[in-house]
Amino acid sequence: MTTIASMTRMLICAGVLAGVSLQAYAAPAAPERAPQQAAPSAPPKGFECHTEPLTGSGPGFKSSQEESEEAAIANWLEKAKAIYPDATWDAAKEPFMQCVKQGLYSKCFATGIPCRPKPE
Known about the structure:
Blueprint: H1 3-26, E1 47-49, E2 54-56, H2 65-83, E3 93-102, E4 105-113, E5 115-117
Antiparallel strand pairs: 1-5, 2-4, 3-4
């Protein structure tokens, strides 16, 4: 094969591969799992809430999503208890759990506004 024919063939192959790569890149990725709400958005009657939401994520990625969710809630609780010592995830206003995956590992983020029973 001549040099010009070899170079033409190489450019055509490179163009085809680039086109396939761009199509794969442009295709929207379907979410693996929809974000989930952990509880109703309003706290129970008789509760008072902080003004700003808090986010907890825990350290690093975990090998199971359940462990990652637990770590996120535990980290959120640490921050919430600094504001309200009797805060719980179940009493949070607008609780929201979102998880991301990287390979076999996941990391979750727990976001919510800490609430506590109103003092009498």
